[in-house]
Automatic annotation (TrEMBL), chain A:
This is Branched-chain amino acid transport protein (AzlD). The chain crosses the membrane at residues 41-61, 82-100. InterPro entries: Brnchd-chn_aa_trnsp_AzlD. It comes from the Bacteria. Keywords: Membrane, Transmembrane, Transmembrane helix.
UniProtKB/TrEMBL annotation, chain B:
It is a multi-pass membrane protein. GO terms for biological process: L-valine transmembrane transport. Keywords: Cell membrane, Membrane, Transmembrane, Transmembrane helix, Transport. This is 4-azaleucine resistance probable transporter AzlC.
């Protein structure tokens, strides 16, 4: 049962990935619809980032994580290098937790 | 800024991401073992599913003895790869070998890094570089986590749970300079967060596509492109509005 569940999830995930790639050829998309593809991707990535920042399960994740992400976002907005953004976000969150703030 | 500088900066950025993914992979391996699941489970999952968010979600439900819920939640969360595939299909090109292998390497980070590039050749290079290094590092991390167990430490203590969303935000930030994209993305993100307490796990992220509804402006006149919101020069603004309006409805109905 365990292996069946894992394989169904694996095959289904791969099917989503491949069907998007293959469907692109079949769809005759107008220029405006083509423009919506990166927009959809940006919306999904923004939603992932937002839920991963604010939520743990269906509850609020606490303050340490959003504070770290905010620090990283400000650095990214000021055009800091990606590596600095990632390290600063982790460091702020880790330090806040070390200080007992969750 | 020369090509060498950009390439070196990019390798450094991807290296940072890969190192973080290895640490999170190690925690995935360790957590799965701590749940009392067999050692092959995290390894098989990571190689075959290769989607961190869905793996963490599914393994918790598998450990709770609820495999059906694990599959449903995992598939709902991973349905986003279909629109991702549409967005990066041109980057993967027409060769079957590239499409079949490249599809498996598609992750949030691969897509975000790829779409952050504007040149087709750079997109191609970044896609394979990010996809390949994440696949290797994620699976190596999981294996280490299984072998070392709890010795890998708590990734939350290192703040890694903040590193990934911050990285994604850094990657999509440039695309948010476009006014319509910003509205779509921020509305979608808000919808996903607000719906999270009420919808089954996995579904809220897909509801981000509701953000596309913001492209409909009731009774809007043909729009004039603004400097912050460039349109393709050969597209009449009126056609853009009408076409996106008619296509939005089925997207919204998904949720």
């Amino acid at each position: 049962m365990l292996i069946a569940a894992i394989l169904v999830l694996a095959v289904g995930t791969y099917a989503f990935r491949l069907s998007g790639v293959l469907l692109r050829d079949r769809l005759e998309l107008s220029a405006s619809l083509q423009r919506m593809l990166p927009m959809s991707a940006a919306a999904l990535l923004a939603a992932l980032a937002a839920t991963a920042t604010l939520m743990a399960g269906s509850e609020f994740a606490g303050f340490a994580r959003p504070a770290g992400v905010l620090a990283g976002t400000l650095l990214a907005w000021r055009k800091a290098p990606f590596v600095l953004v990632v390290i600063a976000a982790a460091a702020v969150t880790a330090l806040l937790r070390l200080a007992g703030l969750h | 800024m020369g090509t060498l500088y950009r390439t070196r900066a990019q390798v450094r950025d991807i290296g940072a991401l890969a190192a973080a993914s290895m640490a999170v992979g190690a925690s995935f391996g360790a957590i799965t073992i701590a749940y009392g699941l067999p050692a092959w489970v995290p390894i098989v999952m990571s190689v075959t599913i290769f989607a961190g968010g869905a793996q963490f979600l599914a393994v918790g439900l598998l450990a709770a003895g609820n495999p059906v819920a694990a599959v449903v939640a995992g598939l709902l969360l991973n349905a986003r790869h279909l629109p991702f595939g549409l967005a990066v299909a041109d980057t993967l090109g027409a060769r079957w070998r590239d499409r079949l292998i490249g599809s498996h390497l598609m992750t949030d980070e691969t897509v975000a890094f790829t779409l952050a590039e504007s040149e087709p050749a750079a997109r191609r290079r970044v896609y394979w570089l990010v996809g390949g290094s994440l696949f290797v590092c994620w699976n190596t991390g999981v294996l280490l986590g299984v072998l070392l167990g709890g010795a890998t430490g708590d990734p939350d203590a290192l703040g890694l749970d903040a590193a990934f969303p911050a990285g994604l935000i850094a990657l999509i930030l440039p695309s948010l300079r476009d006014r319509s994209t910003r509205l779509v993305a921020l509305t979608g993100a808000a919808a996903a967060v607000l719906l999270t307490p009420f919808l089954p796990a996995g579904l809220p992220v897909m509801c981000a596509l509701l953000g596309l509804l913001t492209l409909i402006r009731p009774g809007s006149l043909p729009r004039h492109p603004t400097p912050a919101d460039p349109e393709p020069a050969d597209t009449p603004a009126g056609a853009v509005r009408t076409a996106s309006a008619s296509s939005d409805v089925p997207e919204g109905e998904k949720c």
